[in-house]
Each structure stands twice: as structure tokens, then as C-alpha cells.
Design a protein that fits this description.
The structure holds two protein chains of two kinds. Chain A is an alpha+beta fold. Chain A has nine helices and nine strands. Chain B has two domains: 84 residues, Rna Polymerase Sigma Factor, Chain: A, CATH 1.10.1740; 69 residues, Orthogonal Bundle (Arc Repressor Mutant, subunit A), CATH 1.10.10. The interface between A and B is large, with 73 and 89 residues.
Amino acid sequence: MKLVQPELQSRLSAEYVLGTMRGGARRRFEDYLRMPQHQSLRVHVANWEGHLTPLANHLPGVTPPERVWHRIDAAVSRNKTPALTGISSQNAVKTPASQGLFNSFAFWRNLGLGASGLSTALLIALFASIAFRAGQEPMMIAVLEEQGVARVVVEQPKSGMLMVKMVKPWKPSPGISKQLWVIPATGVPRSLGIINDTGETKFATDDIDVKLADGLVLALSKEPVGGSPTGQPTGKILCKGVIAKMPLKQKPRPQI
Amino acid sequence: MTTPPAPDQLANLLARTGMGDRRAFAELYEATKSKLFAVSLRIVHERQVAEEVLQDSFVKIWHHAADYAAAKSAPMTWMTAIVRNRSLDIVRRPNLEIADDEDYFASNMPDESPAPADALAAKRDEAQITRCMKGLVGEQHKAIAMAFFQGLSHSEVADKLGKPLGTVKTHIRRGLLKLKDCLDGQVNHVGDDGART
């Protein structure tokens, strides 16, 4: 897809913002948006966002339930005091990189708080450089919940690695294993592995990125010790959560 | 909540959020949650999914608030785009068998009337975009409003309108072109979506 014509750029941007561009086309378009050389495309998208999104003001507000805020608060709390939340499991991984996004964000945020005299631009630049060097921007994050209660947080701190943290463990049950699955658009779950009953579990295998590539949802199922004998979930789903991919570097944030 | 807070106030909250200010973040959420939840709910339909969208979006907003300053769009535009994109990302996800049994559809859906198209027409002084939308012929207007508010694809709009896919694509394409002409012909501060007069 060559996007050299302004008219074509504008038309595709409009369909992207309107939402009629879907599926693979939408993902490819987003890839284009992230590429540094496509600044003009980002401008088109920003213009259309500026044009069309105000239409959303026409919608009457709908108050979300309280639990949404509690979950958000819980998710962002983790980066407030990363050193104190600790990693209890014997499988704890203590290198800064594997502790993932929260530490890195906490680091620059704390830096920012302590340096309020610095300009925002400088802080952003500083952050970008820290995040870039440390490579700590997570690739994705998912909060797995059971009836609205966050049980497990999964993040992919970097390519080839997955960190699973049990935030609210179940009562110990020796006869079962807890198996983590990724469910892609096709709906056929793929196993990511067995997780520890408490604390953190780290997966570091080459095929993680491939398994997660088109993943939409993560789910944890109750399985016989050692994992599902069939390769598909056989027991009860304990908790699940939608995958949030979080590209920050070269994000399609246009400067108009 | 029908009136969004002033853009300046939201920009301030976003800037403080970017500095790690949790209280500002909480205020930001309070000030925008109803609008943003409505935006997502209209697209994804299921309350539980809309809750997930709102949750993911605000976690993202928290992490990205610091570089909002680099975006020159209005705060509400910036946040609405995040919520819309997230909604559109997952609206087509398969109906998984792990879905909960509860029927989130049943009770708490927002009032579907007036229809989006009517809602647009009802607030004609809202903004330039509304004025320009008004300039579209009926079918173009209807198709674009349906796509925007309900997050429908071309073929879904075609189904709902009972029109051939090609016709709907043409309506939307021409409608968007006409919108662009109309908007380009006006003073260029439409992006400031929070600013009402």
C-alpha cells in the first residue's frame, strides 16, 4: 500500500477515524501510522479525529459502575510503590527489566515529581530516552478477573517474555494446576503454560510473541496437575481479561 | 453528565496525571467517565465489554498522559479517540465460551432513542461538524452517523439500511468528502471539541 496521494491519505484516515476501516486493514493502517516517515498520515488522522470525535458529545452520558474505577485504580496503583509491593514467590525475578513497566514508569514519574521545575517537554524527552534505553515499555498488559475481582495481572515486558502476577491468590488446592491460555480471534485457545499458585511466574520462550500476536483475551483455567491433557482447556475458567496492547514508542500521536 | 468539563480544566488534569498525580487522575476519570462509557457502550453494546474498554483506556491514559502535551488535540478528543479505538479493536472479538452467563444486555442499555441520526439533528448548533453533517444528503448522513456512533462496518451499515454494500460504501465515501469540503471551508478550530459557546 503506497500512501503518497494526499486525497488517498485523507480518505483512508477518515474511514479509520469513522471506524469503517476494520480488521486487518485497520491493523495495517495502524502499523503505517507508527512509522516515523508517515507524519502526514498522522496529521490527516488527527484532523479527522478533531473533526469527527466531537460528534460523540451528542451521546447522553452513561455512568459506569464503581468497580471500573476500582480496577483502574488497582492497575495503576502498582506503579506507585513498585519497590514495596514486592515479589513474594521463590520464582521472583529481580532484574529491573523483568519487573516491567511499572517500575520504569514509577521511576520517571518520581523523577518528574521531584523535579517540578523542569519543563514538561524536557520530562517527556527524558522519559522517552529512559524508556527507550531500558526497553521497559510493556508490549501488552491484561488484568484477569473473576466476577469483577482482579486475580491475576499479566504483562509482556519485552519480546519473548511474559510476567504473570497473582494479585489475589485462590485458596491452595494441591490437586490442580492453573493453566494460562491466550484466545485469538479464531477462538481456539493456545496454552501459555502453568502458573504458580502465588507470587509471580515468568515465561520466557521464543514462541510467546507468536502465540500472543493475534491474541484478544487471556484466561486461566483449572486443570489436572501438569496441565490440560487435551491441549485445550478442560476445567473451569477461573478468570479472564482482555489484552491491552500498549505501543508507546512511535505512537501515532500527530503533531498538528 | 451531558456537558463535558472545560477543555482547560481537562488539559490541566491530564498534565497533572502525566506527572503521576493520582488525585488529578481520579478527577479526570470522574469528569469524563460517563461520556466515554457511553461512547464505548454504543459501539460494543455489552456493558461488561464497555467496562473493560473503559478500564483499559484509562490505564492507557494514565501511562500516556505525559505525552498528551505533544498532541495538539483537545483533551476530550484525545481521550475519546483512545476509547473509540479500543472499542473498535475488540468489538469483533468472538463470542467466547468463557463469557459470563449474566445477561449484560438486558437492563442497563442506554436509551437507544432518539436514534443517532436524530440526535445529531436535534443539536444543530452544537459544532461545525454538526452543521456540516446536516449538509449531507439523508443516506450519507445516516450511514456516517451509524458507522460513527455504533461502530458499524460498511457491511453492517448495509445490513441495517437494507442497501447493497457498494451503495453504502459510496454514500460513506462521498459523505466524508463532502464533510471535508464543508469543514475545510470553515474556520479551523473544530478540533476543540470541549469548547462550546
